[in-house]
């Protein structure tokens, strides 16, 4: 299982960023995919998740209405569109799948600053 995140960087308050997670080594269309984030000294927070067909989606309260998770099973990729960024969104963002085994990408840093 390999998960590779991309798209992080410097974002501005109120602006957008789009994260991507390219998956390989398993049948991508089967499991739920999730995005987590972590800041120094804190545990990982689940930001969003999407079921295999996209019919079941979860968002943390802190990002509802601003972030959108989506997936393209033909490209083995899950996305996180982040709009109206806030400084408190600054974190390392990780892609996760719990199946076939709990697996994480290396993370991509998002820094929101003016």
Features of this protein?
mainly beta; 7-stranded mixed sheet; 4-stranded antiparallel sheet; globular
Structure description:
- By secondary structure, the chain is an all-beta fold.
- The chain is built from no helices and eleven strands.
- It has strands spanning 2-6, 9-11, 17-24, 33-38, 45-50, 57-59, 67-72, 77-82, 91-97, 103-104, 108-112.
- Strands 2, 4, 5, 6, 9, 10 and 11 form a seven-stranded mixed sheet that branches.
- The chain is globular.
Give a brief outline of the structure.
With 114 residues, the protein is mainly beta.
List the helices and strands and how they pair.
Elements: E1 2-6, E2 9-11, E3 17-24, E4 33-38, E5 45-50, E6 57-59, E7 67-72, E8 77-82, E9 91-97, E10 103-104, E11 108-112
Parallel strand pairs: 2-11
Antiparallel strand pairs: 1-3, 3-8, 4-5, 4-9, 5-6, 7-8, 9-10, 9-11
How far apart are the termini?
A: 37 Å
Helix content: under 10%
Question: What is the number of beta strands?
Answer: 11
Class from helix and strand fractions: mainly beta
Poorly predicted runs are: none
Helix/strand order: EEEEEEEEEEE
The shape, in one word, is globular
User: Mean of the pLDDT scores?
Assistant: 96
Query: How many H/I helical runs?
Result: 0
Largest sheet: 7 strands, mixed
Cα Rg: 13 Å
**Share of β-strand residues:** over 45%
